[in-house]
Amino acid sequence: MKTIKIMNIKEVIRRHRFNIVLHSQMYYYYDNPIWSDTKFDNVCKALCKLQKDYPDESRRADGYNAFKDFDGSTGVQFCNSEAVEYFSDYIDYIYLLHQAKDKTFQRYAKNRQLKKIKHTVPMLGLEKCHTYQEAIDWENNLKYLLKKT
Questions:
Q1: Is 33 helix (H, G, I), strand (E, B) or coil?
Q2: 95: which residues sit within 8 A by CB, 6+ positions away?
Q3: How far is CA 75 from CA 40, 44, 78, 104, 118, in A?
Q4: CA Rg, the chain, in Å?
Q5: What is the DSSP string of 40-91?
């Protein structure tokens, strides 16, 4: 297992929390898991160990209130929870990426009544974001651009 630098522990905890919330939402709400049960269990165990070994970093990482009593046994409590609200933009985006080539996506789009429209002003798209870090960079760029206007 890789050694994690102390300064990166908070980020690793945050990423594990995000991924657990994302997987739980995909598994319980959309009935379309993106991880195997084994992978989910491994990430949950890793997060629980990090939270126990680094309590200060755990408290400072995003999602602490939702995860402070997390024992790693299930993620059902995160389905449609406050944690999902916190990460909702990323979860919706990843869901759409995951479903893009699947008929489930067509049903999802139809149920949500998504309509294709032509924008008169170019939109800042996420289509080139393929990792969590790229999504964070996109968000930071958007915040920067909004401050300029």
A1: coil
A2: 25, 26, 30, 108
A3: 9, 9, 6, 23, 39
A4: 17
A5: HHHHHHHHHHHHHH-HHHHHHSTTHHHHTT--SS--GGGTTSHHHHHHHHHH
Domain regions of the chain by residue span: 6-114, 117-149
82: which residues sit within 8 A by CB, 6+ positions away?
A: 65, 66
Which of 105, 88, 87 minimizes the C-alpha distance to 96? 105
**What average pLDDT does range 14-34 have in this prediction?**
84
pLDDT of residue 119: 54
* Contact yes or no for 26/95 (Cβ under 8 A): yes
* pLDDT tens digit sequence for 110-121: 555 545 556 555
d(CA 39, CA 45): 10
Residue 83 and residue 66 in contact, taking contact as beta carbons nearer than 8 Å: yes
Asked if pLDDT for residue 127 goes beyond 90, the answer is no
Using an 8 Å Cβ cutoff, are 124 and 138 in contact? yes
pLDDT tens-digit readout, 31-55: 778 788 899 999 999 999 999 999 9
* Over residues 83-100, mean pLDDT: 64
